[in-house]
Amino acid sequence: MAMCIASSVAELVSAYPTAGGMYFVTKHVVPREHVPIWAWVIGWCNFLGQTAGVSSVAYTVAQMVLACASMNSGFMGEKYSYTPTPIQTVLVSILTLTIVGVICSLTTNSLHKIIIWFAPINILATISICVALLVLTPEKQSARWVFTEFTDGSGWGSKGTSFLLGFLSVAWTMTDYDGTTHMSEETHDAAIRGPVAIRAAVLVSGFFGWMLTITFCFCLKDFDGILKSPTGMPAAQIFLNAGGRVGGTVMWFFVILIQFFTCCSAMLADTRMAYAFSRDAALPYSSFWSKINPYTHTPVNAVWLVVAFSICLNCIGIGSTQTVVAIFNITAPALDLSYVAVIMARIVYEKRVMFIEGPFTLGRFGRTINIIAIVWVLFISVVLFLPPIRPVTATNMNYAVVVAAFIALFSLSWWWIGARKRYTGPRTKNLLEMVPTDDSDDDGEHHRRA
Question: What is the DSSP secondary-structure string of 36-82?
């Protein structure tokens, strides 16, 4: 299903690769008179989903760091001497967002030198961790338990419903399909490289994610004990059981590093989307957020807009960790719905709007793949808004639907009050000035179809 969505997205952004991603494509699949409202809704949906994703990854990094601190403190009977508090988690997440914000404010050339290491380190670390856990964990579950045992812990009383609710974590990981496209204006041959990167990311992430999940399942011998881990994170307990304090900490460090890389990648995509959205006058004070820094040639103001927005979301965690985690659930449905809206628009308006394909095309299988993507996202989005646990309380409620409703009310109210009078949708020129891909100025301008 993820590959169907990714392939549909790849085909569209191959035709129009810009920092706006799927938001920008809206202009070329919708009749001119409908472009403003379609682009407005899709843009806000995408921006909300991406920012919630950045916030959630930074918050997870903070939880991981403090879990590491906890498991390296003295063990006192049934708990460790250090137990992280909600405000400490939020503060570490703010520090994480600040560091990532500094990285994302660097020049494109500097970013390239850093990002190029993300994939190889991620792959090598994942393989090494899987091997180490399987070798070092003293007692492991049987293959029969791993592949046939089903535990219904949701309280819904239905294994089918619990199975579908399991997509909450999977969908959070397998989304942001147009993330690489948001860097198109800082990439050579983006119309070709973008689609390749999108589909490759799904394949690689899917395979290594599956491999890591299976490895974790083999290491769940003390299932209840791991779930009630005194570290506060069951995953950290798996590493602690396998390698002890020292070995577990070393392996856990690489998990934190991978998650930090993910945060950098997510923020890069989000900041470029914020830049494209403000460039089209769709955000408050757009003229400020859309400025390109004259020294780094990157949208630094947009970077710190995302940092500030993400910090505001994470501060909710001071009041309730469960509530802020539930709010993060908006990431997958917001992003995926923004994608299928564009895919659906292309199908609905294909007789009224001529779509000029890019280098990558799905050919005669395109319509079938598009429909599969649309049906799946509409179905799973309903599931992703359901409370993950019953009985439902104020703390375990899935507040993603509340956040979605608030943002929808805010953006649509703003639209009808005044934005509809001045917002015309994605703004383009026949020659779109690209952001330089090197620190030097002798690269000139890159010309792209707009």
Answer: HHHHHHHHHHHHHHHHHHHHHHHHHHHHHHHHHHHHTSPEETTEES-
